[in-house]
Amino acid sequence: MKKSKFSEAQIFAILKQGEAGVPVSELCREHGMSNATYYAWRSKYGGMDASHMAELCETKAELQRLKRMYADLAMQNELIKEALGKK
Questions:
Q1: How far is Cα 41 from Cα 74, in angstroms, rounded to an integer?
Q2: Which residues contact 50 (CB under 8 A, 6 or more apart)?
Q3: How many CB atoms neighbour CB 29 within 10 A?
Q4: What single string gives the DSSP state of each residue in 10-59?
Q5: Does the pLDDT of residue 65 top 90, yes or no?
Q6: 21 CB-contact burial (10 Å; exposed 0-12 / middle 13-18 / buried 19+)
Q7: Cβ partners under 8 Å of residue 49, min gap 6
Q8: What are the residue boundaries of the structural domains of the chain, listed by start?
Q9: Closest CA to 9 of 60, 59, 57, 53
Q10: pLDDT higher than 70, residue 2
Q11: How far apart, in whole angstroms, are the C-alpha atoms of residue 27 and residue 41?
Q12: Is 60 exposed, middle or buried (0-12, 13-18, 19+ CB in 10 A)?
């Protein structure tokens, strides 16, 4: 997945500007992004504060780490089963 050029703090600041009444088209032009990106962020992060956004990112990173661990263990388990079955 492509990494965003905006940090969580920047996304949070842009969304706060939008909530403050700055027109979306002006925000998008100022920050060099599309309207669709703004609305995707709003649907994903709307109503969150900075601590919730950081917690969400940490949870995603932890989930990726656990998925990799599971894949490694599943592969090792399969190899062991194959080795024991051939004897």
A1: 35
A2: 8, 9, 12
A3: 11
A4: HHHHHHHHHHTT--HHHHHHHHT--HHHHHHHHHHHTT--HHHHHHHHHH
A5: yes
A6: exposed
A7: 12
A8: 1-48, 50-87
A9: 53
A10: no
A11: 13
A12: exposed
CA distances from 60 to 48, 52, 57, 71 (A): 16, 12, 5, 17
How buried is residue 80: exposed, middle or buried, by Cβ count under 10 Å (0-12/13-18/19+)?
exposed
What type of residue is 4? S
**Chain segment 33-57, per-residue pLDDT in tens:** 999 999 999 998 877 777 787 888 8
